[in-house]
Structures are given as structure tokens and as C-alpha cells.
Amino acid sequence: MRQHTIAFVTCMLAAMANPALAQGPAPADPAPSPTASPIKRTVIARADVSVPNREAVVAQVEIAAGATAARHTHPGDEISYFLGGEGELLVDGQPARKLKAGEAFIVPAGVVHAARNPGKEPARLVGVYVVEKGQPLATPAK
């Protein structure tokens, strides 16, 4: 199972790097609110995986300069690759982790975390989520 997930993530990151290999864009998830959000998540692909009742969602994520993605969880694992800008991953109970282009992180299902962009330009990353079907991609944490 782990090898299949790693192979899937590798293929999806390669597709993101070469738009000619990627499928056409999927609609954004969720629909944008009337007010501008400091976080923009655009779903690029969504497909079933080999685990029953799970799907993989590949998204391009952008965090505005100086913005924070509030504490939240996902109904599955998040595997993300940092494309550019600056970032800090804030996982409950762990020290803040600084991120830059070329680095990746994994957040297990249900783990409360946040992200912050301390820089002066947008932080950009590719997020791959292997999540329960029919659940919201992210849920605010209490």
C-alpha cells in the first residue's frame, strides 16, 4: 500500500511540473466565499485510490503574504510539496517548521495543524490529500 501511495504521489507531482501531462483543471474546492480568503486551494485532480472509500485529491495551494491558514484537520493524510515563497508548518505539540521551495511535509489524518506565510510573496505548494470520500477536504479545528 505504501509503495502505491508513493508511486501515486510521484506521478502527480510530475504531472504538476509538466502541465501537458496533467488532466484538465477540476473545479476549486470549496466554492470561494464572497470575501477574499488568504488561502486559495484549487483542485487539479480527484480520483479513487486502491483503499475502499478513499480518494486522492491533488490541489495547488497558495497562502497570501503575511497570512495564516487557521488550525484545521483533514479526513485523511496530507502530503505536500513546497514550490515557492516562505512558510511555516504549525503542528499542534511540535515546534514550528520553516519551509522553502523543494521541501515536503506529511500531516497524518486528523492531526491539527496550521500554516503561516511570514514572507512578502505568496507561498505556493502542491497538496496531495488521500481522504475519505464525501468528506470536506479541510475542517476547522476547535
From TrEMBL:
InterPro entries the UniProt entry points to: Cupin_2, RmlC-like_jellyroll, RmlC_Cupin_sf
Source superkingdom: Bacteria
Signal peptide (residue range): 1-22
Domain Cupin type-2: from-to ranges: 61-128
SUPFAM superfamilies: RmlC-like cupins (SSF51182)
Record has Signal as a keyword: yes
Keyword terms of this UniProt record: Signal
Protein name: Cupin type-2 domain-containing protein
Species this protein is from: Pseudoduganella buxea
